């Protein structure tokens, strides 16, 4: 199926028997919680199109340049991702928009999970700040894209090269570079991410 009009097309819960693929050339495709496990074909978002909603898709998700995903999250993080697919590929500049209820709590919200792999995650960013949350960040873990929502921005310390020099590992915030560190002098190395800390006792590599 090919969507060519500039409006919105919704596939509801009674469309689970659909077995084909979908190419979105214009406008918005909405998945209204349907389960499409009978298809192994792809949803293809061409440039400047949008996918909204939740559900399970048996095939791949292929997001072209400047295409967008919109997720309508609940008041608390769900146990499973809103959208599930076989794999996902992001090409070019892709954005994620979050629609969040006013009573949503801080937490880690699963948005998109796949049984295979997610490629091109570095092309994905939040389209804008999230209402009522001072800090928000997308992360990829275990083939799932999560949105972390917090009322306060985390403090991101630095890591020590040696007792006399520091270097900020987070450039830009939320992403880590991987430089080499000489720890043979007994220097303690502490690596910080937004919420986790890894301590090295002083020797070897981290």
Which terms summarize this structure?
about 210 residues, disordered C terminus, mainly beta
Instruction: Determine the strand fraction and express it as a percent band.
Output: over 45%
Helicity, as a percent range: under 10%
Mean pLDDT metric: 79
Question: How would you describe the shape?
Answer: globular
Could you give the count of β-strands?
Answer: 20
The number of helical segments is 0
Main sheet properties? 10 strands, mixed
Helix-and-strand structural type: mainly beta
Tell me the span between the first and last alpha carbons: 49 Å
The Cα radius of gyration reads 20 Å
Q: Which residues form runs of ≥5 with pLDDT under 50? A: 157-206
- What string gives the helices and strands in order? EEEEEEEEEEEEEEEEEEEE
Structure, described:
The protein has strands at about 1-5, 10, 20-25, 30-35, 45, 50-55, 60-65, 70, 85, 85-90, 95-100, 105-115, 120, 125, 135-140, 145-150, 160, 165, 190, 195-200. The strands form four sheets. Strands 2, 4, 6, 8, 9, 11, 12, 14, 15 and 16 form a ten-stranded mixed beta sheet that branches. It has a six-stranded parallel beta sheet with strand order 1-3-5-7-10-13, with no helix packed on it. Residues about 155-205 have low confidence and may be disordered. It has about 210 residues and is mainly beta.
Provide a compact summary of the structure.
This protein has 206 residues and is mainly beta. The chain contains no helices and 20 strands.
């Amino acid at each position: 199926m090919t969507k060519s009009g500039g409006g919105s097309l919704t596939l509801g819960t009674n469309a689970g028997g659909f077995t084909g693929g979908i190419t979105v050339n214009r406008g918005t495709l909405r998945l209204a919680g349907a389960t499409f496990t009978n298809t192994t074909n792809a949803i293809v978002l061409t440039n400047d199109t949008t996918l909204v909603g939740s559900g399970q898709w048996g095939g791949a998700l292929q997001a072209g340049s400047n295409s967008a995903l919109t997720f309508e999250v609940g008041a608390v993080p769900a146990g499973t991702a809103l959208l599930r697919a076989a794999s996902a590929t992001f090409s070019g500049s892709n954005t994620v928009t979050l629609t969040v209820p006013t009573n949503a709590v801080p937490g880690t919200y699963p948005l998109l999970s796949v049984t295979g792999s997610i490629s091109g995650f570095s092309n994905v960013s939040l389209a804008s700040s999230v209402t009522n949350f001072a800090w928000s960040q997308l992360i990829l873990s275990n083939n799932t894209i999560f949105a972390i929502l917090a009322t306060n921005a985390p403090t991101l310390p630095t890591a020590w090269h040696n007792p006399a020099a520091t270097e900020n590992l987070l450039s830009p915030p939320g992403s880590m570079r991987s430089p080499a560190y000489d720890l043979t002098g007994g220097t303690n190395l502490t690596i910080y991410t937004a919420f986790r800390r890894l301590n090295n006792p002083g020797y070897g590599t981290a």
